[in-house]
Design goal:
Strand content: 5-15%
Largest sheet: 6 strands, parallel
CATH superfamily of the largest domain: P-loop containing nucleotide triphosphate hydrolases
Mean pLDDT: 84
CATH topology of the largest domain: Rossmann fold
Bound molecules: adenosine-5'-triphosphate
Number of domains: 3
Number of strands: 22
CATH architecture of the largest domain: 3-Layer(aba) Sandwich
Low-confidence stretches: 1-43, 109-138, 411-435
Helix content: 40-55%
Strand order of the largest sheet: 7-6-8-9-5-12
CATH class of the largest domain: Alpha Beta
Amino acid sequence: MSEPGGTTSDVGRDVGGGVLGGGVLGGGELGDGVLGDGAARTPWRAGPLLGAFAAAGVLTAADVRVAERLGALTGEADERVRLAAALAVRAVRGGSVCVSLADAVALVDVGDPGPGRIEAGGREAAGPGPGTPDAGPAVLPWPEPDAWAAAVRASAMVADGPAGPADRPVRWVDGRVYLDRYWRDEQLVRHEVDARLAAALPADDAAVRRAVAARFPRPADTRQRLAAATAAVSRLTVLTGGPGTGKTTTVARLVAVLRDVHGTDLRVALAAPTGKAAARLQEAVDAELAELAAASGAPRPAVLHASTLHRLLGARPGGGTRFRHDRAHRLPHDVVVVDEASMVSLPLLARLLEALRPDARLVLVGDPDQLASVEVGAVLGDLVARVPPAGSLPARLAALVPDDAPPPLTAAGGTGTGPTTTGTGTGPPVVTDADRSDDARDRRALRGGVVRLTVPHRFGADLGALAEAVRRGRADEALGLLRAGGPHVQLVETADAAPTAAEVGGVRADVAAAGAAVVAAARAGDAAGALDALGRHRLLLAHRRGPAGVALWSAVAQRWVTEAAGADDGGGPWAVGAPLLVTTNDRTTGLANGDTGVVVDDGSGGVVVAFGTAGAPRLVRPHRLPAVELVHAMTVHRAQGSQFARVSVLLPPATSPLLTRELLYTAVTRARDVVRVVGTAEAVQAAVQRPVRRASGLLFPR
Ligand SMILES: Nc1ncnc2c1ncn2[C@@H]1O[C@H](COP(=O)(O)OP(=O)(O)OP(=O)(O)O)[C@@H](O)[C@H]1O
């Protein structure tokens, strides 16, 4: 398991390590080399069936090699079974937990570009990826479905159903095919989450009511009060909402409510998937808690430290999938809050749930409409969308905060128990029309401890409306809002996918102004000022390479800044004012992959690099730094968990497989004040119309 921003070979390691490292088949058979760098270029000896899928670009060499190896190790020669395994490996590379064999045909049919093209972390594959135009069901020798399913279920490679043997590398559950390791993680999450929701916690109702009312006094704070009450009586709270809807504020006050009720000794951990997000969380929560204390005349509470999830769990040197805290060595905390939970992968959530004390409260906070984890799973989205088991939570909340809790769903509306499931009890949930409204969905999700905040407090109305149109998949509306523009929204509609110099004139002005301000502050030795200026504007792209990629545009932006700032040192990585991105995790300095900093004059002829926030800069000497690169532009994936006053997003051509609804939504919502979208109308529409689909079994009853 790698931290966010992990490479494709990290994902490969996950697959190989999971299948074999778990001891199922003996160690080390599938090392990094199988899925690691260069695998796609390595020739392989595929049988005719897998060879056909590989030749069509649906499978990569890595998919095929893993499947063939598993076949050899389990004595399974049937190519149809190996094909199912290869499709499961392919699914994992694309972020899915499993593959539904029935859907696999349709996915390729609709031109799914495949995970080889949409790599984890938004990386593009070096060579042509799966889903090249000539791939399609007409030319692919798909096995006959019933015979295929029967062969898979009967195979020695495959465990059939949840009760199937525990020592098989692949598992079949109701038509879904998993690499077994991910099925186990999914089961763990399912069981732990359901156990947390099964029974509401006892609480002093009067004390909870008093604290909730005191901490959220405004009449309009309804959903925030509901969230705090949920955290008071549920061992799982999922707090969701778009940017600026008050999630962080709610977290701080929710902690205050829990302390009011349970005492200030309550051990609270704040965590986030990235160091950057953790720093933001800590700063915001501490500021809010200090303000609350000041307002009530209480002494300022001790600072609540936030850390990355990996650090909280006790990552071991060298990474790996095991942490110091696990089922045998639980975390000591009474409350664990995880921000930016949309970036948490299924395996990482599984490890966290294992490490939590059963009586500890878990509060997951995030925006499920953003890009999901760079690794496997879209677990926040799944927890919000799944049909939770019936529990006592809604009734408990209705009793505790009657004015804020929505009335329970009624059977008359067909929604009394939420969407029904098909007769076999194993099919997908059937959702009636009455269930589809936001209101019905929110009420149903409350059974799962999910509270969605809906009122944006920070966004300009035009920016909020744009984000909402993108989130809801309304392409024409999103394009209309962009074209109409406003104080917080700009569209530079380009004639061609590649913008002209005139079309990026505004981007250039913003890049140059922010960059020159960074350089000026850095030259003056003003670390806080440099970090502040660094957050004024960010250029975002979908791709790393190519004409619409970070590599090219970062170089262009660097030239703009160098010209604007009159830098005479070429703007290299140690030039004063150079913006740096950390590209690996480093225990010595505590810097994490994704942290950004600025090279600052140290006042005595040398330089230091300032990281952290303007409020609390951290200075690190260059020789102590882990791997860094210049960051005049970054991918949208990288920007997740950060916000900037102004954002310019350069869209790739409409045909780019990276151009998805989640990507555009995440890009747009990185802006605190103004977003500028540069691209063709087709690109905007293509993005909004293309939601990412990640297969997972969490949405199903088992
Ligand atoms: N109930 C409320 N009434 C008025 N203002 C609020 C309320 N809750 C939060 N705010 C304000 O709204 C702004 C955004 O809140 P906050 O940062 O908590 O949102 P967020 O959802 O965490 O945003 P992001 O996703 O961008 O981190 C802050 O200025 C906060 O003080």
